[in-house]
Amino acid sequence: MRDFETISVEIGEGIGRLTMNRPDSLNALNDKMTTDIQIALKELSADRSVRCVSITGSGRAFSSGQDLKEASQLKSFADSLRKRYNPIIKLVTGMEKPVIALVNGVAAGAGMSLALSCDYRIMTSSSKLIQAFVRIGLVPDSGSTFFLPRFVGYAKAFELAALGEEISSEEALRLGIVNRVFPDNKFVAESEKILARFASGPTKAYSTIKKMLRHSAVYSLEQTLEYEAYMQEISGRTEDAKEATQAFIEKRPPVFRGN
Ligand code: T3D
User: Fold this and answer.
1) Could you tell me which of 124, 178, 187, 230 has the fewest CB atoms within 10 Å of its CB?
2) pLDDT of 75 strictly over 90
3) Ligand 1 pocket: which of 64, 131, 135, 139 to mutate (most atoms <8 Å of CB)?
4) Which of 20, 26, 138, 166 to mutate to test the pocket of ligand 1 (most atoms within 8 A of CB)?
5) Stated pTM of the model
6) For residue 91, what pLDDT is reported?
């Protein structure tokens, strides 16, 4: 993987680790960083040795959202979203492998949206999520109005978006916005175990589960049942499914190769 100006990317042991790297601004998303993230996500998506991707921030934040010091130069918010943020959210959700947000510190505005777009979220106990948009008179973007009501229901989504208050890790866990919360001093070690599990699992099944859950959000039960039948036909023919069935019969743990 190439070197980037605003992020770092490391690949090893089946995991692609993307770290936003502008700690002085709490990893605010400037134009260069959104371009770098798009390029990196495309490369991680294409790399078959990568079976799980993590996204985190350097320093004390995950991301503070749009770089407000650069925002005044914006000619059009809509163009900025279409060109810079929307492709990132589509790359994460369309990635045919699990994408895990390691929320190491505050995730605000589009930074929170980015975390919401991932398939699994792990937070340090001291981290906060903030729908910061309304604090500066804006509305949620980068997928927040899609993900939030699906995670927490309309009533809570409205409250979080309209009041823009800090959401503690305890509340995020209680609301079902995040999957796991670890004390700050155990965050790295515990997250590594989860990343290793996803990186050694049945990658194609994970990718199919992503597609099916997104599909179910917009289709009827009847259409969903048919889609499940179609997807199960494909899944049952993967090498990993065959290996796992054989492993069950032989009373041994399966070895998934992501095929
Ligand atoms: O189309 C488009 O492009 C529009 C898209 C919009 C999407 C959005 O994301 S809108 C929401 C933008 N984000 C925010 O409004 C959050 C702004 N930041 C904050 O509210 C606070 O910084 C935090 C609550 C996140 C953290 O507070 P705290 O007290 O821990 O840190 P701090 O002191 O405020 O920030 C530390 C430094 O980071 C500081 O710089 P300095 O004074 O040390 O030189 C601060 O200016 C800088 N910083 C924090 N957030 C941003 C930022 N610089 C640029 N942009 C930021 N978003």
Assistant:
1) 230
2) no
3) 64
4) 26
5) 0.97
6) 98
Distance 74 CA to ligand 1 centre (A): 16
- Ligand 1: which atom is nearest the Cα of residue 135? 15
Protein residues with CB under 6 Å of any ligand 1 atom: 25-26, 28, 64-69, 74, 77, 80-81, 106, 108-110, 130, 132-133, 135-136, 138, 141
CA atoms within 13 A on the CB side of 19: 17
Q: Say whether pLDDT at 73 is over 90.
A: no
pLDDT tens column, 8-54? 999 999 999 999 999 999 999 999 999 999 999 999 999 999 999 99
9 phi, psi to nearest 5 deg: -135, 130
Specify the residue for token string 């995730």: 107
Strand 99-103 with 106-108, pairing = unpaired
Task: Compute φ and ψ for 115, nearest 5 degrees.
Answer: -60, -40
Domains parsed from the chain with CATH numbers: 7-199 (3.90.226.10), 203-249 (1.10.12)
As a residue count, the chain comes to: 259
